[in-house]
């Protein structure tokens, strides 16, 4: 059965996720580890659990979610998977990383482009993929029905949604995508966001001020 471990890295307090199962195959989603200490925490867990990292995946490519891409690719010799609409978003990071206090940022490129019709398999685990743009033009989320788990990136948060004022963002698109792609999932599905605590689809449908039942779309 799939298991999940999350780490909170970098000044943006970004959530990095490691998913793995009984086969010890694993994937890393959105590595935000920039400092050596952060990289050591991630690698220490992987070594302790005896995991074999199969893929590196970005839900989207804003700076806080890709700071550890180069480390993970180099350390585990794995390809980077992402949506094709995030290519320019990822390329732009090197131009502004120093302005955000990350002069040591190493640029990376995608190795495989994920389509929303695809699925991702590692070990005995298969993740379904949903295209949820609005926060970023190629934003993907990943859903595991058997454990009612959704890795949501910066789409849906506890009581909030992703910001839409960055290049490629669109508020109406994000609202519609959450409603059409995420709120069709069962209420009990646990949503693991790119920042902050986990929530559930049911809680956000009921109480989220942007997309909940009392919100005005």
Automatic annotation (TrEMBL):
| UniProt entry tagged with the keyword RNA-binding | no
Q: Which SUPFAM superfamilies match?
A: Metallo-hydrolase/oxidoreductase
Q: Which Gene3D superfamilies match?
A: Ribonuclease Z/Hydroxyacylglutathione hydrolase-like
Q: Name one GO molecular function term.
A: metal ion binding
> What cofactor(s) does the depicted protein rely on?
Zn(2+)
The record ties this protein, via InterPro entries, to: MBL_Glyoxalase_II (IPR051453), Metallo-B-lactamas (IPR001279), RibonucZ/Hydroxyglut_hydro (IPR036866)
- Record's keyword terms, sorted: Hydrolase, Metal-binding, Zinc
Work out whether the entry's keyword set contains Zinc. Answer: yes
Q: Which residues form a coiled coil?
A: none
The residues covered by the Metallo-beta-lactamase domain are 13-195
- Give the highest taxon in the source lineage: Bacteria
Question: Which PANTHER family does this entry report, sorted A to Z?
Answer: HYDROXYACYLGLUTATHIONE HYDROLASE GLOC (PTHR46233)
Q: What's this protein's name?
A: Metallo-beta-lactamase
Species of origin:
Rhodonellum psychrophilum GCM71 = DSM 17998
């Amino acid at each position: 059965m799939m298991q999940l471990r999350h780490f909170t890295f970098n000044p943006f307090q970004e959530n990095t996720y490691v998913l793995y199962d009984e086969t010890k195959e694993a994937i890393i989603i959105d590595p935000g580890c920039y400092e050596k200490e952060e990289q050591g925490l991630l690698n220490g867990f992987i070594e302790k659990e005896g995991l074999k990292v199969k893929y590196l995946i970005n839900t989207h490519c804003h700076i806080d979610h890709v700071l550890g891409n180069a480390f993970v690719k180099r350390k585990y010799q794995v390809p980077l998977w992402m949506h094709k609409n995030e290519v320019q978003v990822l390329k732009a990071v090197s131009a502004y990383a120093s302005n955000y206090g990350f002069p040591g940022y190493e640029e990376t490129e995608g190795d495989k482009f994920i389509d929303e019709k695809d699925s991702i398999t590692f070990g005995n685990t298969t993740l379904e993929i949903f295209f949820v743009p609005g926060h970023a033009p190629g934003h993907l989320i990943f859903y595991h029905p058997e454990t009612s788990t959704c890795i949501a990136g910066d789409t849906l948060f506890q009581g909030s949604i992703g910001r839409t004022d960055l290049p490629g963002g669109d508020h109406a698109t994000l609202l519609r995508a959450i409603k059409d792609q995420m709120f069709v999932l069962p209420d009990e599905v646990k949503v693991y966001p790119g920042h902050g605590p986990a929530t559930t689809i049911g809680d956000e449908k009921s109480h989220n001020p942007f997309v909940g039942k009392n919100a005005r779309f």
